[in-house]
């Protein structure tokens, strides 16, 4: 019965979303990929807001439910029937009453299973597409026949573009660059590799009074250069959304200086490399939103760069939804864990493989995040830099919460809605 109800609601939401798009005809920028979609979506929306009335996907609303919620301008009703009634009422209101509807929608789209993006593309056609990184072993691969099939689906919005419509892609991803050559879109690139439309150079930490508080880099577009700063989060990957946003802005003829000024308001979403003040004088790198092999590698590289830390502590949960690649990917990353951390803390059965790193490193192992949170609260000390990362279901944000110097900072964490906190 529940499955039937879901199918019905997906159909109804798609129907209303399609009808609303036909009535108001907003331009649609779709953001797809396996790594960094939400950060990129937020940055793109900031840059485009200098010229357009923009609405973006809230949080990570990127599914066949989440995308219609954004189009209709409503929140997630969860399991509340009264809230679902309010959603339908809002949808009908959009169709029969005059509304000041956004001129531009920035929609994050994602796929958990084959066909997810095809269903979204039936009611929403992009006018521009931004692709983020599509690594060799992407997230959700266990639901697909092969990693190639995942990459093809995540790239598929690009095939819906009209000729000469903007396709913004990462220049550092050879698979995406190769796939883009197959379509007649207007290709713009962003990344560290040269040449790029938005070329990132001179990358480094941003500091205030000697304390790391973000990232900075010089970005070049058509001979123009701007020093861009992303405060509150760390890692080279924090600069990619900004570069993608600047490339997208240039596609819509927004001056680089205006886009950069708008991006001063951008900050990485919760749980994506966010810097937080930890207990006992420690520093937390909160990367607790989710974990895939590529994202864990990037996070560990960031942790390694904190060479001034007294102890670099990697708190790593299971990487889920990897299917037959699970064992080999956990074992492969264990080498990087050993090179990046002085203390390894594993959370979950699969994550125990991280402790096999070929280096003398202190190791703590826990079955779940609640146990780890209890033990680590008194373990961290002044000068420690603590990376916390794990797949969504491992709920490593509970560990971050336990490590916060100020409990009032809990609002900065991912999954703090009442429905999430009530889950086991």
TrEMBL record:
List, alphabetically, the InterPro entries matched. Answer: Mur-like_cat_sf (IPR036565), Mur_ligase_C (IPR004101), Mur_ligase_C_dom_sf (IPR036615), Mur_ligase_cen (IPR013221), MurCDEF_CellWall_CoF430Synth (IPR051046)
Keywords carried by this UniProt record:
ATP-binding, Ligase, Nucleotide-binding
Q: Which GO terms describe its molecular function?
A: acid-amino acid ligase activity; ATP binding
Transmembrane residue ranges: none
Domain Mur ligase central intervals: 103-212
Question: Ligase among the record's keywords?
Answer: yes
Q: Which Gene3D superfamilies match?
A: Mur ligase, C-terminal domain, Mur-like, catalytic domain
Q: Which intervals hold domain Mur ligase C-terminal?
A: 276-391
Q: What is this protein called?
A: UDP-N-acetylmuramoyl-tripeptide--D-alanyl-D-alanine ligase
């Amino acid at each position: 019965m529940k499955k039937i109800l879901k199918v019905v609601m997906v159909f109804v939401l798609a129907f209303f979303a399609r009808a609303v798009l036909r009535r108001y005809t907003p331009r649609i920028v779709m953001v797809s990929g396996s790594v960094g979609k939400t950060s990129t979506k937020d940055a793109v929306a900031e840059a485009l807001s200098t010229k357009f009335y923009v609405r973006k996907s809230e949080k990570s609303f990127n599914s066949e439910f989440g995308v219609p919620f954004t189009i209709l301008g409503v929140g997630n009703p969860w399991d509340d029937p009264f809230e679902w009634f309010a959603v339908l009422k809002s949808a009908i209101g959009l169709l029969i009453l005059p509304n000041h509807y956004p001129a531009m929608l920035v929609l994050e789209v994602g796929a958990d299973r084959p066909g997810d993006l095809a269903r979204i593309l039936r009611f929403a056609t992009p006018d521009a597409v931004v692709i983020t990184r599509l690594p060799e072993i992407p997230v959700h691969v266990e639901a697909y026949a092969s990693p190639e099939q995942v990459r093809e689906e995540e790239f598929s919005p690009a095939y819906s573009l009209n000729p000469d419509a903007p396709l913004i892609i990462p220049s550092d991803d050879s698979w995406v660059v190769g796939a883009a050559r197959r379509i007649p879109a207007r290709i713009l690139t962003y990344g560290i590799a040269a040449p790029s439309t938005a070329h990132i150079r001179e990358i480094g930490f941003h500091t205030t009074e000697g304390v790391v508080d973000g990232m900075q880099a010089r970005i070049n577009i058509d001979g123009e250069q701007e020093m861009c700063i992303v405060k509150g989060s760390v890692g080279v990957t924090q600069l990619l959304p900004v570069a993608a946003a600047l490339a997208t802005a240039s596609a819509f003829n927004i001056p680089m200086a205006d886009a950069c000024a708008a991006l001063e308001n951008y900050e990485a979403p919760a749980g994506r490399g966010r810097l937080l003040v930890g207990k006992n004088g420690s520093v937390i790198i909160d990367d607790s939103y989710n974990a895939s092999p590529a994202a864990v590698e990037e996070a560990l590289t960031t942790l390694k760069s904190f060479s001034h830390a007294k102890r670099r502590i990697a708190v790593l949960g299971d990487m889920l939804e990897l299917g037959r690649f699970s064992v080999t990917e956990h074992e492969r990353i264990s080498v990087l864990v050993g090179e990046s951390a002085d203390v390894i803390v594993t959370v979950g059965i699969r994550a125990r493989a991280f402790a096999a790193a070929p280096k003398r490193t202190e190791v703590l192992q826990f079955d779940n995040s609640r146990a780890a949170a209890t033990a680590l609260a008194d373990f961290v000390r002044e000068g420690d830099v603590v990376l916390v990362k794990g797949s969504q279901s491992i709920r490593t944000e509970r560990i971050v919460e336990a490590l916060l110097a100020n409990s009032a900072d809990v609002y900065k964490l991912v999954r703090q809605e009442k429905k999430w906190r009530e889950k086991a």
